[in-house]
Amino acid sequence: MRNFILEGKKIARPVLVTTCLLTLLTCILSCTLYRGYTLHFELDPWEIGTEFLSLLFPLFVTIPICWQLYYERRDRFLTYTLPRIGRRRYLAIKWGACALSAFIILVIPYFISALFALYVRAPQELWPIPKGYAHVFSNLYAKTPVLYALLLSLWKGLLGVLTMTFGFVLALYGSNVFIILTGPFIYVILENFFWAILDAPGLRFVTAFEPTSLSAPAVHATSFIAGPALMCIAMGLVAFYFQKVKKRSIYQV
Fold it and tell me: Where are the domains of the chain?
């Protein structure tokens, strides 16, 4: 636990700043941006105000966190830890601190902005639901919006951890800090473009992160599993490439 706290302190400042800024921004947008839209449910302003996170979240969970591991490798700090703590144990503790940080960066802004959208924003007339309108988990969304927002925020936090892990793997082997910090973002963009061309939007990682990007009938269990599974495969291939093809060690830059 002591080592876990120490690792968390190393990235506490950028994580805190990122979380506070995102919380402030999402709360403001959720309370203002909806005014030009037609609303059908009380939680609609939250979805409108947090749309930008569906595109930029890989940057928010990677840049404030993974830079520190890269500099530990570059300065050979990881090598100095070998006599004091096992390699796997140190990396596991470090990943745990980074995972918790990535989880916090997404869950807190999402959930607090949902509460602002429900209880703080100025009320606006809700329009009748048009014929053919469909929303993911519509009963939960309409009847228990707080529970819906909490569950979706937790799910997005878990996907944020997975995305951060991609950057973590890049930081373990990569030597270019720009590629390390933007790699997950580039992957999500290219993967989104690739599956859009093949007309398979349900396989996108963005669909798992933001299920409301598709109409409700098009979202099913595979939509939540396919994108994360493909990212795990991509991480495995990246690690295999660096280890077996490039012959690169974690403890050498």
Answer: 2-245
